[in-house]
Recover the amino acids of this structure.
């Protein structure tokens, strides 16, 4: 089990983007563990199959797609509803990371970053929100503490995450009266995907750990329970919120820990 508490998602249908690895994989598996029917989206079919394991098609669906394409995003939502009959939770997790000097970021790199981190969310939200209105469902976006402030060498990435998080707050205002909640979780450095190798290099990892009150970087299993909470009935009066799941990173002023 990826959650210590049990959440009643029996009969609920959940769509998770970027579900083939890392945080998205942990989220998808946690929903499955808690009784949900889960559709996972990503560009690599083999990774989606790995996430779903031996779950059968009555409870799990893999949808390989590039949802930065508006038509593909519409098709994904339509396929989920056609297969399961409804949509209750949309978890926007898929993202790309880019670092380096702003002046060296190419047009192609920016386009790729924006398409994955922003455009795909916009296209999917447009398709999913009418379905969520029908079910009284909700959206949980995976943002980042990098969307809350600046970071050295991450201007493009931070800009896209800030847009995602403000988008969620604005939609929370627009859709609250329609019975749809939207919230964001904001992880800090997480040993997942491109960052995984850093966990094996204590020297490279040390500056990150220095900023974390709990003294260790997150792993995907730390993030998934927060997503389930925000998607659950326990958070019925929570919308437009950003929940920092960051080990205390944002509690700091930014000065180093010298103790």
């Amino acid at each position: 089990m990826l959650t210590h508490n049990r959440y009643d998602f029996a009969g609920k249908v959940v769509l998770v983007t970027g579900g083939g690895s890392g945080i998205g994989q942990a989220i998808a598996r946690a929903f499955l563990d808690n009784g949900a029917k889960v559709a996972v989206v990503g560009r690599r079919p083999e990774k989606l199959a790995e996430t779903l394991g031996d779950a059968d098609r009555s409870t799990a669906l893999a949808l390989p797609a590039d949802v930065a394409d508006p038509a593909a995003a519409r098709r994904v939502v339509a396929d989920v509803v056609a297969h399961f009959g409804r949509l209750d939770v949309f978890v926007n997790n898929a993202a790309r990371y880019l670092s380096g000097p702003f002046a060296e970021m190419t047009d192609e790199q920016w386009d790729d970053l924006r398409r994955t981190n922003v455009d795909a969310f916009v296209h999917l939200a447009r398709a999913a929100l009418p379905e969520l209105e029908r079910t009284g469902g909700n959206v949980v976006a995976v943002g980042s503490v990098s969307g809350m402030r600046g970071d050295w060498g991450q201007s493009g990435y931070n800009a896209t995450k800030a847009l995602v998080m403000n988008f969620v707050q604005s939609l929370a205002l627009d859709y609250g009266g329609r019975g749809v909640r939207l919230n964001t979780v904001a992880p800090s450095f997480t040993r997942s995907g491109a960052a995984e190798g850093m966990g094996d290099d204590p020297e490279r990892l040390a500056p990150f750990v220095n900023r974390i009150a709990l003294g260790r970087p997150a792993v995907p299993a730390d993030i998934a329970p927060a997503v389930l909470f925000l998607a659950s009935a326990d958070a019925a009066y929570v919308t437009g919120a950003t929940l920092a799941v960051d080990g205390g990173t944002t509690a700091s002023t930014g000065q180093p820990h010298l103790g």
About this structure: The CA atoms of residues 95 and 117 lie 5 Å apart. The two ends are 36 Å apart (CA to CA). Residues 13-191+217-245 form a domain with the Rossmann fold fold (CATH 3.40.50.720).
